[in-house]
Amino acid sequence: MAEKRGFQTWGLNRAQRFARLPRSTTPVLLFPAPSPLDFSSRGIDDSEIVKHIFAASTPLKIVDIGASDIEDKPIYDPLMEEGLSNLIGFEPSPEMYEKLKDLESDNAHYLPYALGDGTEQTLKVCRAPGMTSLLEPDMELLTHFHGFDDWAIVEERLPIQTHRLDDIEEISDIDFIKIDTQGAEYQIIEAGQKKITNAVAIHVELSFKPIYHGEKSFAEVDLLVNKLGFSLHTMAQINRRAFRPMIFNNSIFDGLHHILQVDALYIKDFKNLGELSPEKLRSLAAILHYCYGSFDAALLALRYYDKKSSTDLADTYLKGLR
Predict the structure, then answer these.
(1) SS3 state of residue 318
(2) Partner residues linked to 144 by β-bridges
(3) For residues 142 and 125, what is the distance between their CA atoms, to the nearest angstrom?
């Protein structure tokens, strides 16, 4: 539920995430390495050295499910700006899809499919486009928070055929998948396990307490993606909301402590990175570097790459960060 008409996700932006690195963490590596280097005060450095490491890769294959243009910039935008990736996006809302078509380019294409479990369902078009979902908003829960009694009103119901991700012929492989479908994440992952298993990173919006009827909780989705070989890496965004009638900072969008939703990043389990191909390892490193500023994890992926390819990209990467 990142910035959408009428409401916003409040979390760390890209620059803030990169700035808030641990201040007292000493990396412990499973490979021979130079003396530990403290990067706690460093920001991202897109030096030519770092760019060269990833520019030689085959373009990353990104899939965006729920690709409507109501966000400021998608999390994968740095990869697109650097020309390091190709994108296929899905958006079933007719209004949003028409806008996305204007954004198509040689490396970005959009499809008007609703992904799900392959059955015919009903798209609930809400007053705030960012609330539109295959599922019914839980108004009893949502009215505890400001604004949702208006934003979550269903204004139109459209019968729609959903498609299983595993059945989409336009997708042969995935490196990075982003899923923001307002409660339908579980059924999409469950019906796309074969293709998602080939990915190295999943960015998914989840609710600890479901805000739609029939939505699976964070815990249930977490178990599913764990079975596919992924582990939680970070919370890219945390959406906190205040219980009505109280507000903070004179804004209904600011929360205090209660977490409504999160954008979670899952990556291939770091204990099993040695099972990935060199190309997948370099793809993972690029995603972690450019999209999340996870320099230590990117370095780990590059060390496994070096071990498989007899190269020294990890040392080169460190030099590029200095």
Answers:
(1) helix
(2) none
(3) 16
The predicted pLDDT at position 12 comes to 39
**CA gap 195, 293 in Å, rounded:** 26
- 55 Cβ contact partners less than 8 Å away, ≥ 6 residues apart: 82, 83, 84
The sign of the CA dihedral 196, 105, 90, 165 is negative
Backbone angles phi, psi at 314, to 5 degrees: -65, -45
Beta strands in 187-293 (DSSP E): 201-206, 212-213, 230-240, 259-268
- The C-alpha R_g of the chain, in whole angstroms, comes to 20
Average pLDDT over residues 243-254: 94
Phi, psi of 23 (to 5 degrees): -100, -10
Q: Report residue 120 as tokens.
A: 């015919």
Evaluate whether 305 touches 281 at the Cβ level (below 8 Å).
Answer: yes
Element (H, E) at 286: helix 278-287
Nearest of 36, 1, 46, 37 to residue 260 by alpha carbon = 1
Between the alpha carbon of residue 69 and those of residues 14, 137, 203, the distances in Å are: 18, 21, 17
State the average pLDDT over residues 247-257: 94
Tokens standing for 2? 């990142």
Query: What SS3 string covers 129-164?
Result: HHHCECCEECHHHHCCECCHHHHCCEEEEEEEEEEC
DSSP labels for 291-306? II--HHHHHHHHHHHH
How many whole angstroms from its chain centre is CA 244?
A: 29
Can you tell me the distance from the alpha carbon of 219 to that of 185, in angstroms, rounded to the nearest whole number?
12
- Give the rounded percent of residues in the chain with a pLDDT score beyond 90: 73
Q: What is the mean pLDDT of residues 244-256?
A: 94
